[in-house]
């Protein structure tokens, strides 16, 4: 049985090891998320989760770590910056309608695998030191209220765009958790949130998906529309997408706290396949085999080639009416996929081209 002093030393050791494994910080929270339960229920009742049925599937277990993983007594919360050190400036890409904008987190390798592997290494080192212990690793892959846990651990505060904000790192980072059955000493949460009267994230959202401070209607969110939505993108939002073909960073790009954001030290998050600075037409020309081979190991891989083309077709519909843009769209006007064809025809109509 570990004494209180043992556990204090153990917590310090865990935090040091986490940094050695590439995490910016590790902090420890308890399992009480009762304050988050009503907000979760209200968000689900409003239908803001859209087609993300998994958000409702586990009920309040999402807010009850000790029910989700019986025996959990403390949660080690970690985060890892992802902004690549060398990449085309986001503002410049967004301003060029012929280029494809992909969320900065998706330019490198799949963060799920990277963080999960590092957290498992942390658990293995801990087990080698103290012997077997109950634990489970989470990286945006199960019903976990990761922002609420991180806030409780003192990793930052929830911004009005609902993402975690940290005074030293902004918001460009991935979160992960290690649930344990150890009674580790808990860190103190931030005494205050530091958004004040700022509403830049709400004002900047292209689709007005941030319907109120700390509330996002996913059904309007470009990240949801280009990643989670399975079928047709609602016509009412297509013009608003601009050239954003995988996710959206607008609420982060305008956040004053991101002037403190750091670039990642993790090579897996460096730009791959030139995705930071590439034309919509070039990506639209990728065959399915091109997509599968080039994006293997990327978070983009999971949406599949059909939805990739759907998103790019919308981007091309919003692009300048250049010969290259029109030719790209016409090349897939008879695509075997009804989903792709529908978006291509819409895009051609935006350029006054009838098929």
TrEMBL record:
<keyword id="KW-0963">Cytoplasm</keyword>
<feature type="binding site">
    <location>
        <position position="62"/>
    </location>
    <ligand>
        <name>cob(II)alamin</name>
    </ligand>
</feature>
<feature type="binding site">
    <location>
        <position position="198"/>
    </location>
    <ligand>
        <name>[4Fe-4S] cluster 1</name>
    </ligand>
</feature>
<keyword id="KW-0411">Iron-sulfur</keyword>
<feature type="binding site">
    <location>
        <position position="201"/>
    </location>
    <ligand>
        <name>[4Fe-4S] cluster 1</name>
    </ligand>
</feature>
<dbReference type="InterPro" id="IPR013542">
    <property type="entry name" value="QueG_DUF1730"/>
</dbReference>
<feature type="binding site">
    <location>
        <begin position="248"/>
        <end position="249"/>
    </location>
    <ligand>
        <name>cob(II)alamin</name>
    </ligand>
</feature>
<comment type="function">
    <text>Catalyzes the conversion of epoxyqueuosine (oQ) to queuosine (Q), which is a hypermodified base found in the wobble positions of tRNA(Asp), tRNA(Asn), tRNA(His) and tRNA(Tyr).</text>
</comment>
<feature type="binding site">
    <location>
        <position position="221"/>
    </location>
    <ligand>
        <name>[4Fe-4S] cluster 2</name>
    </ligand>
</feature>
<keyword id="KW-0004">4Fe-4S</keyword>
<keyword id="KW-0479">Metal-binding</keyword>
<feature type="binding site">
    <location>
        <position position="164"/>
    </location>
    <ligand>
        <name>cob(II)alamin</name>
    </ligand>
</feature>
<feature type="active site" description="Proton donor">
    <location>
        <position position="140"/>
    </location>
</feature>
<feature type="binding site">
    <location>
        <position position="205"/>
    </location>
    <ligand>
        <name>[4Fe-4S] cluster 2</name>
    </ligand>
</feature>
<feature type="binding site">
    <location>
        <position position="251"/>
    </location>
    <ligand>
        <name>[4Fe-4S] cluster 2</name>
    </ligand>
</feature>
<dbReference type="GO" id="GO:0052693">
    <property type="term" value="F:epoxyqueuosine reductase activity"/>
</dbReference>
<feature type="binding site">
    <location>
        <position position="195"/>
    </location>
    <ligand>
        <name>[4Fe-4S] cluster 1</name>
    </ligand>
</feature>
<keyword id="KW-0170">Cobalt</keyword>
<dbReference type="Pfam" id="PF08331">
    <property type="entry name" value="QueG_DUF1730"/>
</dbReference>
<keyword id="KW-0671">Queuosine biosynthesis</keyword>
<keyword id="KW-0560">Oxidoreductase</keyword>
<comment type="similarity">
    <text>Belongs to the QueG family.</text>
</comment>
<dbReference type="GO" id="GO:0005737">
    <property type="term" value="C:cytoplasm"/>
</dbReference>
<keyword id="KW-0846">Cobalamin</keyword>
<dbReference type="GO" id="GO:0031419">
    <property type="term" value="F:cobalamin binding"/>
</dbReference>
<feature type="binding site">
    <location>
        <position position="140"/>
    </location>
    <ligand>
        <name>cob(II)alamin</name>
    </ligand>
</feature>
<keyword id="KW-0819">tRNA processing</keyword>
<comment type="subunit">
    <text>Monomer.</text>
</comment>
<keyword id="KW-0408">Iron</keyword>
<dbReference type="InterPro" id="IPR017896">
    <property type="entry name" value="4Fe4S_Fe-S-bd"/>
</dbReference>
<feature type="binding site">
    <location>
        <position position="175"/>
    </location>
    <ligand>
        <name>cob(II)alamin</name>
    </ligand>
</feature>
<dbReference type="GO" id="GO:0051539">
    <property type="term" value="F:4 iron, 4 sulfur cluster binding"/>
</dbReference>
<feature type="binding site">
    <location>
        <position position="255"/>
    </location>
    <ligand>
        <name>[4Fe-4S] cluster 1</name>
    </ligand>
</feature>
<feature type="binding site">
    <location>
        <position position="248"/>
    </location>
    <ligand>
        <name>[4Fe-4S] cluster 2</name>
    </ligand>
</feature>
<dbReference type="GO" id="GO:0046872">
    <property type="term" value="F:metal ion binding"/>
</dbReference>
<comment type="pathway">
    <text>tRNA modification; tRNA-queuosine biosynthesis.</text>
</comment>
<dbReference type="InterPro" id="IPR017900">
    <property type="entry name" value="4Fe4S_Fe_S_CS"/>
</dbReference>
<dbReference type="GO" id="GO:0008616">
    <property type="term" value="P:tRNA queuosine(34) biosynthetic process"/>
</dbReference>
<feature type="binding site">
    <location>
        <position position="223"/>
    </location>
    <ligand>
        <name>cob(II)alamin</name>
    </ligand>
</feature>
<dbReference type="Pfam" id="PF13484">
    <property type="entry name" value="Fer4_16"/>
</dbReference>
<feature type="domain" description="4Fe-4S ferredoxin-type">
    <location>
        <begin position="185"/>
        <end position="215"/>
    </location>
</feature>
<protein>
    <recommendedName>
        <fullName>Epoxyqueuosine reductase</fullName>
        <ecNumber>1.17.99.6</ecNumber>
    </recommendedName>
</protein>
């Amino acid at each position: 049985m570990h004494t209180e002093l043992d556990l204090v030393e153990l917590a310090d050791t865990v935090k040091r090891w986490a940094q050695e494994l590439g995490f910016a910080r590790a902090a420890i929270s308890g399992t009480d998320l009762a304050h988050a339960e009503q907000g979760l229920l209200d968000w689900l009742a409003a239908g803001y989760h859209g087609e993300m049925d998994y958000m409702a599937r586990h009920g309040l277990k999402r807010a009850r770590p000790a029910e989700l993983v019986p025996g959990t007594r403390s949660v080690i919360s970690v985060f890892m910056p992802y902004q690549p050190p060398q990449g085309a400036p986001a503002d410049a890409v967004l301003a060029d309608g012929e280029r494809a904008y992909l969320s900065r987190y998706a330019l490198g390798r799949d963060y799920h695998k990277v963080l999960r592997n590092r957290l498992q290494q942390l658990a293995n080192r801990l087990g080698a030191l103290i012997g077997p212990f109950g634990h489970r690793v989470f990286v945006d892959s199960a019903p976990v209220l990761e922002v609420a846990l991180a806030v409780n651990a003192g990793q930052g505060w929830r911004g009005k765009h609902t993402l975690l904000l940290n005074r030293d790192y902004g918001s460009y980072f991935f979160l992960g958790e290690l649930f344990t059955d150890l009674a580790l000493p808990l860190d103190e949460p931030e005494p205050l949130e530091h958004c004040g009267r700022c509403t830049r994230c709400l004002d900047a959202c292209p689709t007005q998906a941030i319907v109120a401070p700390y509330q996002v209607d996913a059904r309007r969110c470009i990240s949801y529309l280009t990643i989670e939505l399975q079928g047709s993108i609602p016509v009412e939002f297509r013009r608003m997408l601009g050239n954003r073909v995988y996710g959206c960073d607008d609420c982060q790009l305008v956040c004053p706290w991101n002037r403190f954001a750091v670039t990642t030290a993790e090579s897996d998050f460096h730009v791959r396949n030139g995705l930071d600075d590439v034309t919509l037409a070039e990506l639209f020309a990728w065959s399915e085999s091109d997509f599968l081979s080039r994006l293997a190991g990327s978070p983009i891989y999971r949406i599949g080639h059909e939805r990739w083309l759907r998103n790019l077709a919308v981007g091309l519909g919003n692009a300048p009416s250049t010969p290259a843009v029109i030719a790209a769209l016409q090349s897939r006007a008879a695509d075997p996929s009804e989903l792709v064809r529908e978006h291509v025809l819409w895009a051609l109509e935006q350029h006054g081209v009838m098929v």
